[in-house]
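queue> pop job 88
queue> type: inverse folding (structure -> sequence)
queue> payload:
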């Protein structure tokens, strides 16, 4: 059963799918009528992917996956809020998912907006301001390390998001400590199409 995969095996499966995507040799698994029917009453995803809402970052496509393979949560700039935490805790405690992937990407608009707000002092209005405020600590951490370009800042934000998730959720932190779950940060490169591991908590 897919829910019994180790965190390392789950990551290996994602890497293999991404390699097929990069090589334009995708197999489009689990996308037929029989798979659809088999999933009517139950689901056993082997990973949860918490990524940015960017239209260029469709998790099932870049990892060559199908129905029921992964549990996907998306917000602009992969920003954590209570709904995200609840969704990720559900994936671990109810669905038994062994791997949580924090998926960032090059040229992220939310990170760029945050960098601009810090640079100019002009904060956006509405709920976009809340988004920027949640990303600001990651941008400031990158700045302290001498990082000023958006793509390297996104990598730092991905790392910080993984750290924040483990710090914020006792359910997830306990699962990582117990060895049943790993949390990893992954950066997606838009031009090449490859997903690169940038951080991790738990054994892979």
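queue> result:
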């Amino acid at each position: 059963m897919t829910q019994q995969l180790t965190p390392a095996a789950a990551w290996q499966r994602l890497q293999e799918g991404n390699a097929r995507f990069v090589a334009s040799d995708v197999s489009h698994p689990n996308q037929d009528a029989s798979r659809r029917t088999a999933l009517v009453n139950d689901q056993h995803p082997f990973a949860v992917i918490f990524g940015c809402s960017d239209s260029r970052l469709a998790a099932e496509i870049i990892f060559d996956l199908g129905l029921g393979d992964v549990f996907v949560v998306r917000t602009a700039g992969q920003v954590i809020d209570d709904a995200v935490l609840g969704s990720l805790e559900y994936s671990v405690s109810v669905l038994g998912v062994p791997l949580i992937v924090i998926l960032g990407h090059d040229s992220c608009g939310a990170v760029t907006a945050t960098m601009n707000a810090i640079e100019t002092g002009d904060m956006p209005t509405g709920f976009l301001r809340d988004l920027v405020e949640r990303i600001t600590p990651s941008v400031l951490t990158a700045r302290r390390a001498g990082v000023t370009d958006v793509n390297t800042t996104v990598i730092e934000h991905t790392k910080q998001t993984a750290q924040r998730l483990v710090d914020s959720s006792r359910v997830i932190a306990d699962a990582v400590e117990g060895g049943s779950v790993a949390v990893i940060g992954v950066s997606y490169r838009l031009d090449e199409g490859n997903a690169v591991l940038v951080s991790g908590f738990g054994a892979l």
